[in-house]
Structure formats: C-alpha cells, structure tokens
Fold this sequence. Notes:
Blueprint (H helix, E strand, L loop, with lengths): L9 H4 L4 H6 L3 E2 L2 E2 L12 H14 L3 H7 L5 H14 L22 H34 L6
Antiparallel strand pairs: 1-2
Amino acid sequence: MKMPRKIESVSDKMNCTPIVRQYGILNNDWGDFMPKGVPNKRYTAEFKKHVIETMREEGLNYKETARRFEINSHDRIQHWERIYLTEGPEGFLVENRGRSSKGRPPKLDKQVEEDLITENQRLRAENDYLKNLQALVLRDERRRPKKRR
C-alpha cells in the first residue's frame, strides 16, 4: 500500500515554532509566502518606462496597472511614477539601492591646509605654555606660607 505524499508547506521548509506549524501561520489563501533564498523580481528600465507611459496614456490607476502587467505591488508602480516624474525616463537607468555614500570631504587648497596646520601648531604651543604657567603658579602658591588672621 502506497502512503499518500505529504504536501510540504513553507512552515515545514523553514525553521519555525510548533505553533506556527500547527496553525499554518505562514500559509495563506493566496499561496505560501516567499521562502528564503528566492530573489526579488527585477524589472528593466524599458519595462518600467512602458508601464508608466501606458498607465498615463490609458488613465489606469495603480492597482489596474499592477494587475495588467502582473506586478505584485501597486506601491512599486507609485515609486516608478515618482521617479518618472522627477527624473524622467533616464531615472530608471540609475541604480538606487542601498545607502547613499557620504563621500570623502573635498580636498582643501595647499595654502589653506598649510595655514590650518600652522594655526594648529600655534594653538598647541599656547596650550602647553598655559598649562606650564598654571603649574608654576600653583607650585608658587604652595611654597608661600599661609597668612593667619
């Protein structure tokens, strides 16, 4: 007698708690959630441009456009439209993933850099002088006998 094959769900594939497995929390009416290791779908710049231009020409809303072009989220189309309106179709060619770089601070002119170095050296010498002066004053005060009243 052949045993029926068990259908694996996402909770069986992933490392889940017994409660998650018992109630099938990771399963829903539309199918399983995306398991680990499945990359997000990428769309080309030409496709994005075509989607936005079609939406604008035919007067479709975000959800209708998402259904027509089989895009998972209408929020993605909103994001594409914002890029299209601010940067134009060329904005789709720029990769904007991850954090933006702060970059290196701009290089100073040699003269300005030399001036800052000399000022820094002068201030350090002044600091050393004042520390030594303070130490001398304290030592002198300790040597003097205190006046009694």
